[in-house]
Amino acid sequence: MALLANTRSHFTTIADFIANLDKKALHLFRDILLYCDQMGLIGKEMFAIDGCKLPSNASKELRVARADFEKKAAKMKTSKGVIQGYDGVATVGSKHQIVVYAEAWGEAQEHDLLKPMEEGTAENFEAIGDKDIFSKTRLTTDNGFHNEKNMEMPAEKGIDGYVADNQFRKHDPLLRDRDRYKELHRKERARFEGGSGLFKVDEITFAGDLSHAICSTGKKLYRSGTNIDDGKFLSHRFKGPKSASLPCKLRTLCLRKPEKTEIRQVAFFHGRSGKGKNTFTEKMKRKIDSAVGRFFYSKRLGTIEPVFAKICSTIGLDRFKMRGKTKNNSQWLMFCMLHNLKKIHQFGPGLCLKPLKRKKIARN
């Protein structure tokens, strides 16, 4: 404003700048990434991927055609309720928390975002002259990106990945006694509130040879299947006869929907199937539960969460202010670039003392 003597640009000039910012923002982001790389700020020991869901410039009450709605912001569940906005996802280096790839997605779930984020990160580094970045860099994400397909991808590409599953906290050695206290809490709450009134699974008695079972009312349940493989677990199945189940006066205490369910059925799980032991999900569980796996995964939280805190709180991106994915993605890139520039200012004091050794950057 000082150089222009407080002359303000016309709103059409600003609108044109925003409308054509997407490709320019990507090239500028890669230029800054090149600076960070040559100054040794990235490190390349480990990258963490995560998302930050923010509301956008849209109304929840908007009523439009489906084709138009797919172009607008997504409705997504957050810790602060349901919002209509975008998920700003970023890949962050562990050394100085440099954002190496960023993109805003109008997706309520993150399951389908791991592959495009990995590919986008690799493309950015290839553009600045560093091919096959994941041959030497570990990758960590939280359970929001976890499913069987995503666990297969790192294995096929040879990526050293660490992705938590939805039950990660339950098989943490530090929380091994949580179920005991949880059960005590459940019983105390049931006594206080009266409970659901239904019989519990642990009130069923199984014969030693698993030939039959005895239900809560003392009636016999006959075995209806042996070593049934559902793809993950092996189980013996038991069910009661209609002659005993239908006239039972305690059906309302045994079945959740007695008006629709005729007989009581019970499954006794006794192990994982061969297929269940060899799924990519189970392999990832064993990997992340190892001492090495927990050591590297423990670095994820301190790598990426401070970045979102700085962008959203310190820099001030409390919501996406544009309309449409393209413009909001440009805004997300600009804020991530500002974060990286602050990191250069903080950790790269020698920037002005030596010329930048530029590499040929691909311009798509």
What does this structure look like?
Strands 1, 2, 3, 4, 5 and 6 form a 6-stranded mixed β-sheet that branches. A 5-stranded antiparallel β-sheet has the order 7-8-9-10-11. It has 2 domains: 11-171 and 295-353, Ribonuclease H-like superfamily/Ribonuclease H (Nucleotidyltransferase, domain 5, 2-Layer Sandwich), CATH 3.30.420.10; 194-277, no CATH class. It has 12 helices and 11 strands. The chain has helices spanning 11-19, 21-38, 66-71, 114-127, 148-157, 178-193, 242-245, 251-254, 274-277, 280-288, 291-315, 325-347; strands at residues 46-55, 74-78, 81-93, 99-105, 138-141, 161-163, 205-206, 212-214, 220-229, 233-239, 265-272. With 364 residues, the chain is of the alpha+beta class.
Measured as a percent range, the helix fraction is 25-40%
- Counting structural domains, the number is 2
Point out poorly predicted stretches.
none
Label the CATH architecture of the largest domain: 2-Layer Sandwich
Give the full name of the CATH homologous superfamily of the largest domain.
Ribonuclease H-like superfamily/Ribonuclease H
SS strand fraction: 15-25%
SS element count, helices: 12
**Average of the residue pLDDT scores:** 82
C-alpha-based Rg, rounded: 28 Å
Distance between the termini: 33 Å
